[in-house]
């Protein structure tokens, strides 16, 4: 098998991760695993993730932080979710009027639903996305332990259904822009090289990647109340937000959102604006939990 091959579930034939159909003509089975799951499942990624995780655990154990590590991993296991953030108008419009699949950036531009971003922003986004996902396009979210989100993308936090996340989501150790800049600096990475392995995982292995990411912080402070901010720190500024980036590789509908969180200063709007209040009631009729809470925007 070559670097980017995975064995077919049905016949074992090695297929490149970018193929959606098994290339063994006698099998020709459709490959159903989302691309991001395949990318995180190649042998080199698996080996590096497991090696780095074991090393981080040993280091923490030898520093007497085994107990803090146990609490950390248990929190990741029980509390982790994926959130996406958006402006209020977008959320209402999508949930109550459009109700169709959420489209990634390039499809929105193709369909003229949104304008092109500026040349500089579009160039960097496309460049970094291609470096990781080749010709695929992901929907972006972030992992959280306390249902917070990156409010630099909007004040409303959408908390995604966990079963949907488990089947369709991969995680990167950090924001893909920072990741790209780091691998260029540290590894002299070019597009001809495989991505440095061990920075990507499927949802079910999230605690391994989280331990690798946060091992220094767990060492310096085993106060579990701070673990949430080690995993996601929203600063309101995209350049300084710190988080594990989540890639949703599936059609994404409002039904896959489990809860919506609005910042507390919108309560006034709910009370004084009959339209907003009506929207809120409609959300609740859809069986969604609407939470109004104080959080930094
Ligand atoms: Zn096959």
What does it look like?
- The protein is α+β, with helices and mostly antiparallel strands.
- It has two domains: 1-32; 34-293, no CATH class.
- It contains twelve helices and twelve strands.
- The chain has helices at 35-41, 43-62, 66-79, 88-98, 105-110, 119-133, 162-168, 176-187, 206-220, 227-231, 267-272, 274-285; strands at 5-7, 14-16, 81-86, 139-144, 156-160, 169-172, 200-202, 232-233, 242-243, 245-248, 257-263, 289-293.
- The strands form three sheets. It has an eight-stranded mixed beta sheet with strand order 7-6-10-4-3-5-11-12, sandwiched between helices.
- Helix 2 runs parallel beside helix 9 (206-220) and helix 3 crosses helix 9.
- The chain is globular and about 60 Å long.
- The structure holds zinc ion.
- Zinc ion (ZN) binds next to loops.
């Amino acid at each position: 098998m070559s670097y980017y091959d995975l064995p077919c579930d049905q016949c074992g034939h090695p297929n490149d991760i970018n193929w959606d159909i098994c290339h063994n003509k006698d099998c020709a089975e459709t490959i159903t695993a989302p691309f991001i799951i395949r990318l995180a499942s190649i042998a080199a990624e698996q080996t590096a993730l497991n090696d780095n995780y074991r090393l981080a655990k040993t280091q923490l154990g030898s520093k007497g932080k085994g107990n803090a590590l146990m609490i950390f991993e248990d929190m990741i296991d029980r509390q982790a979710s994926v959130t996406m953030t958006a402006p209020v108008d977008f959320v209402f419009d999508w949930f109550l009027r459009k109700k169709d699949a959420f489209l990634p950036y390039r499809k929105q531009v193709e369909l003229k639903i949104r304008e092109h971003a500026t040349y500089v922003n579009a160039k960097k986004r496309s460049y970094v996305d291609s470096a990781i996902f080749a010709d695929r396009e992901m929907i972006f979210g972030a992992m959280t332990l306390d249902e917070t989100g990156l409010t630099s993308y909007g004040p409303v936090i959408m908390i995604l259904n966990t079963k949907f996340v488990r089947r369709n989501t991969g995680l990167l150790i950090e924001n893909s822009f920072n990741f790209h800049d780091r691998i260029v600096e540290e590894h002299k990475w070019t597009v001809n090289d495989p991505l440095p392995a061990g920075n990507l995982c499927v949802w079910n292995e999230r605690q391994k990647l989280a331990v690798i990411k946060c091992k220094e912080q767990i060492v310096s402070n085993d106060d579990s109340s701070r673990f949430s901010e080690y995993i996601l720190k929203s600063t309101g500024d995209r350049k300084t937000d710190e988080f594990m980036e989540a890639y949703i590789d599936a059609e994404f509908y409002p039904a896959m959102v489990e809860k919506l969180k609005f910042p507390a200063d919108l309560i006034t709007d709910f009370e004084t604006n009959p339209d907003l209040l009506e929207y809120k009631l409609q959300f609740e009729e859809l069986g969604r939990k609407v939470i109004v809470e104080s959080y930094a925007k």
